[in-house]
Amino acid sequence: xxxxxxxxxxxxxxxxxxxxxxxxxxKAGGRKNLLLSHLLDTAAVAECMWDGFxxxxxKGVLDDVAGGEGRGRGFFAWLCGVHDCGxxxxxxxxxxxKGAEAVRAVGLRWHEPTAARVRWRHDRAGGYLLxxxxxxxxxxEEHVEWVWPLVAGHHGAFPDAHLLKPPSRGRxxxxxxxxxxxxxxxxxxxxxxxxxxxGLADTAPVRVPxxxxxxxxxxxxxxxxWIASDERHFGGVDVLSSVRFEEARQRxxxxxxxxxxxxxxxxxAVPGRGRFADRFGHDPRPAQTxxxxxxxxxxxxxxxxxxxxxxxGKTKAALMAAEIxxxxxxxxxxxxxxxxxxxxxxxxxxxxxxAAAIDEDLASxxxxxxxxxxxxxxxxxxxxxxxxxxxxxFGGVDxxxxxxxxxxxxxxxxxWPEGEGTQAEARGPAEWFLGAxxxxxCPFVVGTIxxxxxxxxxxxxxxxxxxxxxxxxxxxxxxHAADVYxxxxxxxxxxxxxxxxxxxxxxxxxxxxxxxxxxxxxYLAGAASREEFTAGGLPAPRGYPSVTAAWLGPDTDGxxxxxxxxAGWRDDLNVTLQLMPESIPGxxxxxxxxxxxxxxADSSVVTYLSRELADxxxxxxxxxxxxRAQSLYAELRERFGDEVLLLHGRIAVxxxxxxxxxxxxxxxxxxxxxxxxxxxxxxxxxxxLAEQSFDVDADLLVTDLAPxxxxxxxxxxxxxxxxxxxxxxxxxxxxxxxxxxxxxxxxAAPRFLAASEFIYGRYLLLRSAALVFxxxxxKDRWSIPGQVPELVAAGYxxxxxxxxxxxxxxxxxxxxxxxxxxxxxxxxxxxxxxTRRGDREGATLAGLHYVAVPGGGGDxxxxxxxxxxxxxxxxxxxxxxxxxxxxLTGRALTFNGDVPDDLLDEVLAGTVRLPASYTKEAAGQLTxxxxxxxxxxxxxxxxxxxxxxxxxxxxxxxxxxxxxxxxVEEGAVA
Length: 974
What we know:
Elements (H helix, E strand, L loop, with lengths): L12 H5 L3 E3 L9 E2 H18 L3 H11 L5 H10 L8 H4 L3 H9 L6 H4 L6 H15 L4 H12 L25 H17 L16 H18 L16 H15 L15 H6 L5 H12 L4 E6 L6 H16 L4 E5 L2 H18 L7 E4 L7 H6 L7 H4 L50 E5 L1 H5 L7 H8 L3 E4 L7 H16 L4 E5 L4 H15 L18 E7 L6 E7 L7 E7 L11 H22 L4 E6 L3 H15 L3 E4 L5 H15 L13 E6 L13 E5 L3 H8 L18 E5 L1 E2 L9 E2 L1 H7 L1 H16 L4 E3 L3 H9 L3 H4 L4 H23 L28 H8 L7 E8 L2 E3 L17 H5 L2 E3 L5 H7 L17 E4 L4 E4 L2 E6 L3 E7 L2
Parallel strand pairs: 3-8, 4-6, 4-7, 5-6, 7-8, 11-16, 12-14, 12-15, 13-14, 15-16, 20-23
Antiparallel strand pairs: 1-2, 3-9, 9-10, 11-19, 17-18, 20-21, 20-22, 24-25, 25-26
Helix pairs in contact: 2-4, 2-11, 2-12, 3-4, 4-11, 8-9, 9-11, 11-20, 14-15, 21-22, 21-31, 23-24, 27-28, 28-29, 28-31
């Protein structure tokens, strides 16, 4: 304890501690909060986090760092509390005039005109002070060097050491003179003593943690600071005699309880063999049993790659594996990453059901995390009664305490609108988790894979995202869908997770062998803290379904592998392939020529289906573009009428959800169908939406050519379910390939649709075509799913040239172009990765943000960072009827477009995604309706106002929304 003493020059150090402020009156409930009080508040919050939030694995690591069991809790509290020590400087204390006057009154001085010339951030000042004070207390240099970045980076970015020093233009007035040095040391000693330590030397850690653990700790420090900065729970304490750690503990305990913050399941028992049936209501299939048994065999946290056919039950197997790995290695929750928002929504329901089967209280702690989650009715129902402005409620920024380029303790981007909700108790996750950048901290999270990719970017507050993943089991579905650009972020994320000892489960139906190797290498590189790592000797699976487990042996004694396979639960289908070539206009063709070619292609499909469905049956037709799907649908409607359904991404979300549900009802698994027989005849025309997580069964498949893994995903919808009665002529599974020009005997390589080449690249289409043409030429049938690994390996590896040797020159030219594009895209991604090349073996976080990625680090900013395709814009379509607006279904709004509560869902159901080529013009032209500007959920929504013909001109081109076709491009306005 620091007693009252006066320095040799007459400075009363204790009086100085009694005036140093941490929060101004304006942001501390009308009474300033002393700096020491804020440090103790934050340390007390950290204790609450330790007791009720941190995963068992995290506690074990901190105990180890701090010197043994039982020492981690105090060290963690000290580390969180010391974060704002840099506020004990003239650079900060001068920022609030009233507080500055009190500081001057006790004898602490600075030259105001000089100090006012330049800013010195208090986070960097804190790092500077610790580098000076901790060595004097006996801390080893290696520990000082990893701790100071946690303090210097607590506002979201880690500076290099040379940036800590006060700017020279401040001429010594920013850090203070010798009197200031006395007070700075006294503050640190008083704070340390309050926590029960004998002195600063007693706080010193004994082991340097990995850089991933440091990043995790940094995120937890930010979390503790943001909670302790909430003025509603931590009002000002302006009398030093009232500043006590026990008082701070009581404040923190009340705040923690009122905020409702909770961790996950705590410490789990390893589930036994019968738990699968307890969780899901049926016995596991062989592949699911294999996944669970392999997870049980893992000796350390590692990577578990599950490759199994569509419909094999990979998700349930992954959740059970997560439960096993969490029990074995001390994880306290899960993150399930899905490829799209549309696939995240049903997974959210499934994860909540699984969590409830473990403990009924856990279902309320599952968060849905993607940009359109408020369209999910289940999510919205859980939040009824929640205060919608979570950002404002849980910000706690001090206008005089903030760094000038910060985002106000997480208040810069809101997934929540302003305004209060009802006061009923919400049934979802604690509101604190609903703010920007905090979603991953929720114990159970379902979202898009982008959430993990964001955690691998060099952006502000990335530590919060990584802290949300560390301490969980991470499950990622459909990992094969990541292209070369996204894969750079995926592999970067796996490196950090590997170093953090986070168990990861990857799921795929069609994973190329090279991609499997790269993912394993990335995870093990992190686990070994190596710049590069090749998992030499990784066995290739010998069958399908298969499981590959990889982890690092004790003392990094090389990798360990378990690679097993088993029989699938369904027999293989012998799928016949047929070709339906079409005319492909050249690049200089006129619009009329392209339309004529499309009409001929549509007619061929209509004629074929008329013949093949003469006795009934259900067909799925997948086109590579919306325009092709719309064109074919219109032709099919002429012949088949209401027996045709259209599904694509430019149908408004409301009707699209209805159509998807109708497809699943009519063609879904028999046990999931409502009463009523499968329709006698039905044709579903869809785009790539039907490739994944679309559990329908088609008697016949017609599809545009696509890369082999995607083609196999589409084939996975063919004869998918057992027990379905099919017409005799469709009893054998058959797929018809369209979208190309050329015949099997031709010496020339086929030509493809320009749009297909733009989406997928000519090289991968040629490889896929070689496999398809080879099977047709040899009258081979594909054995699905057993042959999937072989076909995927051939589609992405060597050997295609041998199948079609007369294409060799064309294939080689396409390969060179493809490889150049792949390198360029990988290099483009490298500029945004969390660690630069050559820096992956760094020992500390210093300089991690050597160049920050543009933007505030919010999800909206990062969408364009982790995906390099053309950005597209979602808008809300409304009709203009004279001076009145109407919803897309015709319900009347007011003259300004005001939306009553009972029409909100209907308005939101009109959300539709524009073609990417319209993004720039639409962003500059479209605005919210006047009546939306004050609406909490619509104020940022851009309205697509349709005229009486349901059309609108965007830029110089016209769009039309058709109730059947969706959004139609009509071309340039004359």
